[in-house]
Design a protein that fits this description.
By secondary structure, this protein is an alpha/beta fold. It is built from three helices and five strands. The longest helix has 7 residues, at 99-105. The chain starts with 7 loop residues before the first strand and ends with a strand.
């Protein structure tokens, strides 16, 4: 399948355990919905290649505790990040993700 024109992918509540590294092929993806999968522990580093990504929903993935290295530097168009129900609150501060910018200029839920 050639899904390079796909702009939104909703995988909420699908019992996903792992996000494939092939996610990088979705180069025009603007919205990625991964909430309520509960068993996702991490995201592949290839998610950093989704430079057009604007909205990322990770809510209620209780096992998710890390984001890929360079996350904040690569996803420059990210304007909405939902990390509620995860252990990422302290981690995003640790990597220097500008939460205040997202809270004031855009939106972040945690």
């Amino acid at each position: 399948y050639n899904l390079t024109k796909l702009s939104e992918l909703n995988l909420n509540d699908n019992n996903i355990k792992k996000v494939s590294s092939k996610i990088k092929n979705l180069i025009n993806l603007k919205g990625l919905y991964l909430s309520d999968n509960y068993q996702i522990e991490s995201l592949p580093i290839e998610i950093n290649e989704l430079v057009n990504l604007e909205d990322l929903y990770l809510a209620n993935n209780e096992e998710l505790s890390r984001l890929p290295n360079s996350f904040k530097d690569k996803l420059v168009n990210l304007s909405f990040l939902d990390i509620s129900g995860t252990d990422l609150s302290s981690y995003v501060s640790e990597i220097g993700l500008n939460i205040e910018y997202l809270k004031e200029e855009h939106d972040i839920n945690y």
